[in-house]
Design goal:
Layout lengths: L2 H5 L6 H7 L4 H4 L8 H6 L7 E6 L3 H8 L5 E9 L17 E8 L6 H9 L9 E2 L2 E2 L6 E4 L2 H17 L10 E3 L3 E3 L7 H4 L1 H11 L1 H8 L19 H11 L8 H11 L11 H7 L2 H9 L17 E5 L5 E4 L3 E2 L7 E2 L8 E6 L6 E6 L5 E6 L10 E4 L4 E5 L23
Length: 421
């Protein structure tokens, strides 16, 4: 199974819009044969799916960005928030609408809060005049909620973003009651794919990518605010994704199928947490205090803070894969530090109020082991995050032993990588 499979795994007038997006008026007009019928069908309720509506400026860009968010199934570009019915590309602004996207997502892979965080990391949430080169109320960002719970979650995420102190000002994105969503003309659906050259030119000049890279870097694609991913009960879905990604092909041999079945039954995938009494027998005193009591080991006096070997770091209790040596760096803190986890779905972030200011605790999803905390002072060129992890919560598996211990799918992490410094 490839790493990509494992990780499988994310928003004036007609004339001003046309000028800003770099095409002429005639080319901007969809043909009379085009309609929003196909897109409308995508906004209908589907079992096992949830939906959300967001605005983030140019809907071509927001659609393209959300396609990269974990758990997102489909996105429809359109208009929302105004007073007019059946708005079109020519009159949506005069009807009080914003350019918006209708996001269909799998609630077992990402939460509404996770989508809000993703939106805020791909727009300039401090700009109340529009979005980047596009100015006017129709280009301003907005978060739409359909329940009181969603409103509260949006408020919580905005507060968390503000507390990160990474923006030049406070988040000014309004949280508004969700209204009717009107799909845009087919011409605008998947515009980034169907009109790659024009879209690429606009995207390169609009300033969005420059801003996102400067403020967030690789962290724009990492969801770290607590509540971005579903509860522990949904971990079965993660396991199924991993198993499905490695299903046998029609040409697979019986021997290959047998090996795959063994891999699917890896210990960490069928792990059930034992009692504290059993864990005390299995773990050292420090390991138990750290993983089960949220303790902290002594800096510079732990096994992995200065480990430079290639390999995988797994949960000491369950064996679930957590971090790779390729993402490890020397933070100077005396604890193992990483720029990202192997898969965010196997990590839980929670608010930790044990100290002031409030920190973000990191726990393993399957074993619910306390791992450490994540901070926003990591290497800027690698996303800006620092996962500060206790060695006592980890077991290290050298690269050469990954296949033998059932973690062969992670060998792709080390392809073309030299020794870790």
């Amino acid at each position: 199974m490839s790493l990509r499979c494992f990780q499988a795994a994310f928003f004036a007038t007609f004339f001003s819009f046309a000028v800003a997006h770099g095409f002429d008026d005639d080319k901007a007009k969809p043909s009379t044969a085009e309609s929003s019928t196909a897109s409308s069908s995508k906004t209908e309720a589907t079992p096992g799916r949830a939906s959300a509506v967001f605005a983030g400026g140019c809907f071509w860009c927001v659609e393209s960005d959300f396609e990269k968010a974990p758990g997102v199934v489909d996105i429809v570009a359109g208009y929302s928030g105004g007073r007019s019915k059946n708005p079109t590309y020519k009159n949506y602004a005069s009807g009080g609408h914003r350019e918006a996207v209708f996001v269909v997502y799998d609630p077992t892979k990402i939460t509404y809060a996770g989508l809000v965080e993703y939106l805020l990391k791909h727009v300039d949430p401090t700009d109340r005049t529009g979005s980047f080169v596009d100015k006017g109320p129709q280009y301003t960002a907005a978060i739409y909620y359909s329940t009181p719970e969603e409103k509260a979650e949006a408020q919580r995420v905005i507060k968390a973003i503000d507390e990160m102190k990474v923006l030049r000002g406070r988040v000014m994105v309004p949280i508004l009651s969700r209204q009717a969503f009107w799909p845009a003309e087919e011409y605008h659906q998947d515009y980034h794919s169907n009109n790659a050259d024009k879209y690429g030119t606009y995207r390169a000049k609009c300033g969005r990518d420059t801003f996102v890279q400067k403020v967030w870097g690789a962290a724009a694609g990492q969801l770290t605010i607590p509540g971005a991913f579903p509860d522990d009960a949904q971990i079965a879905k993660v396991k199924q994704d991993i198993a499905d990604a490695d299903k046998p092909s029609s040409t697979a041999s019986p021997a290959t199928d047998d090996k795959r079945k063994d891999k699917e039954l890896a210990a960490w995938m069928k792990f059930k947490k034992p009692s504290d009494r059993e864990l005390r027998k299995k773990l050292t005193t420090v390991q138990f205090e750290v993983t089960q009591k949220s303790g902290t080991e002594i800096a510079f006096r732990n096994p992995f803070w200065n480990n430079h070997d290639e390999g995988l770091y797994v949960d000491i209790v369950s064996g679930e894969p957590l971090f790779a040596s390729t993402d490890k760096f020397d933070s100077g803190t005396g604890w193992p530090s990483f720029v990202k986890p192997v898969d965010q779905r196997l990590i839980i972030a929670k608010e930790d109020h044990s100290e002031v200011p409030v920190r973000t605790e990191v726990r393993s999803r399957i074993a619910d082991s306390h791992l450490g905390h994540v901070f926003n002072d990591g290497p800027a060129d690698r996303g800006g995050l620092r996962y500060c992890i206790n060695s006592a919560s980890l077991r290290f598996i050298p690269k050469r032993k990954l296949e033998a211990e059932g973690y062969g799918e992670f060998l792709s992490l080390f392809e073309g990588v030299g020794s870790v410094k």
